[in-house]
Write a structure and sequence with these properties.
This protein is of the alpha/beta class. It has a 7-stranded parallel β-sheet. The structure holds zinc ion (2 copies).
């Protein structure tokens, strides 16, 4: 039994304990020990029990279980837990973003023990009523179940990244592995991912692929070679693993990051320089020894090019820009100073404003805007005028107690079907940030929808147009709207367009972002629209889209200081 297989048993014990009881210490101890064991550089099977006991975080009780596992291949305690906790709940845990704590709440409060029961409860809108969950959680659950069922393959980048990172983390923990990275379209941050590519450097490919096929997320193995695996996970997503020698790693990572079109162009450039690029190295013609490639930068350097980031590798002008020395200096997550579209408990979010502030500060932000829903959106707890004023007084009070941080008083105001906004001008003029967006009447004609958006953009109090096309990835198409007219109007009235960073939306998409910024000179806000503090992390996906849209720091307003932001919004900072 490999160390990592023992670790998997410990992780499952931790999950089962977490579903079963409230005591957080025991599961934590099993997970911690599991992590240590997975990385331990000697095989535990070669150690004596007292040596196992001496491993940090293991101790007598866990050492006895390890010895039992090594001797019998099983552990009685683990088996007993599997009998006590409905095993369907372990499958429920396969849904991305659904942890053991949520599974316990679902089990305790609604008696859910299987995916079928979970689906029924979500469809009956029972999930949103549970503590710490909301309608977004409910949608995410239904979406996750859909994927489990259909195994249709293509997954939104958010799901693919979560699954890919989980597998990469396991691979990175193996002592046999020296390097690992996500590759393919996940690394290029495309919005829909056909299969997850992983590239690993190791001297022991047979061991690595042999363990990979036994990983608990793997449901089916469709191909298993010495250094390659094709598998399907429980979520129905295909994963391709390639294991190469450490010298070949960077060339392989580059090759399997793609895109094909980008690599094709590089081949041509290489040919002009008397070179050939393969997935295992860069070779001068007629020679069988690769030039030294110790990074992707080296590979581009060999072709006389500066480094081209993965998000640009689509053969959409990046090679020409690299040759001319005009590649953009892409915006990054580290540049972000704040999030300008957030929902609190005051409407349909699940966190208090204080909790959001704490989470934002932890990310190093300097400001946030609280932008709850407006009154017409009653199903999302939209705020009546008096409630909004009350919230603003509350925020003023909160700001007085904050140092080096500012909460902007904002609103996500609905653009009504006739183009009017959900509040009057007087109220809107008192806000620090006004986001306008559409949440109803999606089926209007192209003319009506365009007119509706233009009339919102004309309003002098509106600052940002949120999720401008309304699409939900894999679930709802963009509305019929003349985006050129929207871009023109936004430029004319100095409005900012949003990249909604939720991986379910990514709206505007990369292609439209690039046009908006480059052809119309528009500024962009990358906002998470988080309804839960954990979703502040979605900034990563929004920035991925911004990078695919060639945006630099100067294009993205939430990289600006509070003072600069005040100038953009035409208000004091
Ligand atoms: Zn919205
Ligand atoms: Zn929102």
């Amino acid at each position: 039994m490999h160390n990592v297989e023992i670790a998997w048993v410990f992780y499952e014990i931790a999950d089962l304990l977490e579903i079963k009881e409230d005591n957080p210490f025991k599961p934590r101890a099993y997970r911690k020990a599991g992590r240590t064991i997975a990385k331990w550089d000697q095989p535990l099977s070669a150690l004596k029990e007292d040596e196992i006991r001496a491993i940090p975080g293991v101790g007598a009780a866990l050492a006895a279980k390890i010895t039992e596992l090594l001797k019998t291949g099983k552990c009685e305690y683990h088996q007993k837990l599997r009998e006590e906790v409905p095993l369907g709940l372990l499958e429920v845990l396969a849904i991305p973003g659904l942890g053991a704590k949520t599974a316990r709440t679902l089990y305790r409060k609604l008696g859910i023990t299987t995916i079928d029961e979970l689906e029924a409860a979500a469809k009956a809108r029972k999930i949103r009523t549970l503590p710490g969950m909301g309608n977004k959680t409910e949608f995410a659950i239904l979406h996750g179940i859909d994927m489990l069922r259909t195994g249709s393959g293509a997954a939104p980048v958010g799901v693919a990244t979560a699954v890919g990172r989980n597998l990469a983390e396991f691979l990175a923990a193996l002592p046999e592995v020296t390097q690992v990275s996500l590759a393919g379209s996940t690394r290029r941050m495309k919005e829909m991912i056909g299969d997850i590519d992983l590239v690993v450097a190791s001297e022991k490919p047979v061991e690595v692929t042999g363990l990979f096929v036994k990983h608990p997320s793997v449901k089916e193995v469709s191909a298993h070679g010495e250094n390659q695996v094709k598998a399907i996970t429980w979520l129905g997503i295909q994963v391709d693993l390639l294991v190469v020698g450490p010298q070949e790693y960077w060339a392989a990572l580059h090759h399997f990051t793609g895109s094909k079109e980008h690599n094709q162009r590089l081949q041509e450039l290489a040919g002009e320089r008397g070179l050939k690029i393969y997935e295992y190295g860069v070779f001068p013609e007629g020679q069988d020894e690769s030039l030294p490639v110790n990074s992707e930068e080296d590979l581009y350097l060999a072709l006389g090019l500066p480094y081209i980031p993965p998000e640009l590798r689509e053969d959409e002008g990046e090679i020409e820009a690299a040759l001319e020395g005009t590649l953009p200096d892409l915006v990054s997550v580290e540049d972000i100073r704040g999030d300008l579209h957030l929902h609190s408990k005051w409407s349909d979010g699940v966190a208090t404003i204080e909790e959001i502030v704490a989470a934002a500060r932890q990310r190093g932000y300097e400001y946030i805007a609280i932008t709850d829903h407006s009154k017409s959106l009653a199903i999302a707890g939209g705020l009546k005028e008096e409630r909004l004023m009350e919230q603003h007084r509350y925020i003023d009070e909160l700001n007085r107690g904050l140092e080096d941080f500012r909460v902007l008083r904002g609103i996500e105001v609905d653009i009504l079907s006739d183009g009017r906004l959900d509040y009057g001008d007087e109220l809107l003029s008192g806000m620090d940030v006004v986001i306008a967006s559409i949440h109803s009447g999606f089926r209007q004609s192209r003319e009506e929808m365009t007119k509706r958006m233009l009339s919102a953009l004309k309003n002098p109090h509106v600052n940002i147009l949120a999720h401008p096309t309304g699409r939900m990835l894999g679930r709802r198409d963009a509305y019929e709207v003349d985006l050129e007219k929207v871009f023109e109007a936004a430029a004319k009235y100095d409005k900012v367009l949003e990249i909604n960073a939720s991986p379910d939306r990514l709206d505007l998409n990369a292609e439209n972002v690039r046009r908006a910024a480059k052809d119309y000179g528009l500024k962009i806000a990358v906002n998470t629209d988080a309804h839960h503090i954990s979703k502040l992390e979605d900034m990563y996906f929004g920035i991925g889209t911004a990078r695919r849209g060639w945006l630099e720091k100067k294009d993205v307003i939430n990289t600006f200081t509070l003072e600069e932001l005040g100038r953009i919004f035409g208000k004091r900072g």
